[in-house]
């Protein structure tokens, strides 16, 4: 569903992505791995339209979307769960979820019950302010907000960062369930290798703004991948 071909990305005069390519297929989890500062989040930002890319192409369902803004990409079915969650702390859980309505036609502006199946705690906390939730609950809310948009590509930027182990397991189970439905491609940026190992159908390993390894987990040397992630 998603094909990224040889894109570059700059912040001012600093080049942070250098000829990056990858694919993400529906029904699969593509994990982007690498140490801090290698360009993983910039890649996600480039895909969803939060940062402008140069050169190459980003094909989404066969169409080049490089010239589309972030809102148009969202309407096309691309959703992001940003690093740091970025929920609205003074809005209730229900109001946070409803912010996902903005990209939907009026007839689809409902909160899918699937979200509460994946994260039952959100149903119990609909009236609570987002800022009063734990970090793990806020992460579940951020994922739920993205799912309200009925995405066909879900991009998650380090969803395990700062999260307690019990909720990491719930998030992993939710990602597996979403992939198993077969109608969504999942692009997962992660540093925690053991979490990625449980989920990934494909690895994309980055270093210094470039893809240095890519392929199915059983086609790559696990020790070599782990070394690429170590400080």
- Cα-to-Cα separation, first versus last residue: 33 Å
N-to-C series of helices and strands: EEEHEEEHEHHHHEHEHEEH
Helix content: 25-40%
Cα-atom Rg, whole angstroms? 17 Å
* Largest pleated sheet: 6 strands, mixed
Please list the strands of the largest sheet in the order they lie side by side.
Answer: 7-8-9-3-10-11
Which blocks of ≥5 consecutive residues have pLDDT under 50? none
Strand content: 25-35%
Tell me, rounded to a whole number, the average pLDDT.
95
CATH-level-4 superfamily name? P-loop containing nucleotide triphosphate hydrolases
- The CATH architecture designation is 3-Layer(aba) Sandwich
For the record, the CATH class is: Alpha Beta
CATH topology: Rossmann fold
Work out the helix count.
Answer: 9
Structural class: alpha/beta
Properties at a glance:
231 residues, alpha/beta, Rossmann fold, 5-stranded antiparallel β-sheet, 9 helices, 11 strands
């Amino acid at each position: 569903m998603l094909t990224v071909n040889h894109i570059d990305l700059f912040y001012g005069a600093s080049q942070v992505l250098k000829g990056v390519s990858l694919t993400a297929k529906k029904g699969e989890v593509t994990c982007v791995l690498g140490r801090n500062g290698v360009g993983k989040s910039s890649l996600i930002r480039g895909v969803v339209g939060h940062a402008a890319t140069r050169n190459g192409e980003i094909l989404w369902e066969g169409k080049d979307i490089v010239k589309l803004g972030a809102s148009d990409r969202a309407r096309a079915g691309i959703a992001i769960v940003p690093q740091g969650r970025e929920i609205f702390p003074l809005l209730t859980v229900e109001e946070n979820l409803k912010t996902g309505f903005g990209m939907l036609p009026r007839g689809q502006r409902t909160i899918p019950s699937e979200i509460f199946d994946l994260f039952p705690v959100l149903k119990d906390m609909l009236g609570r302010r987002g800022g009063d939730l734990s970090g793990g609950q806020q992460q579940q809310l951020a994922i739920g907000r993205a799912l309200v948009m009925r995405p066909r590509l879900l991009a998650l930027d380090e969803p395990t960062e700062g999260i307690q182990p019990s909720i990491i397991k719930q998030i992993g189970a939710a990602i597996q369930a979403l992939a198993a439905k077969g109608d969504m491609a999942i692009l997962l940026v992660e540093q925690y290798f053991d979490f990625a190992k449980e989920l990934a159908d494909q690895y994309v390993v980055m270093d210094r703004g470039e893809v240095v390894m890519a392929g199915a987990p059983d086609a790559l040397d696990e020790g070599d991948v782990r070394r690429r992630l170590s400080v």
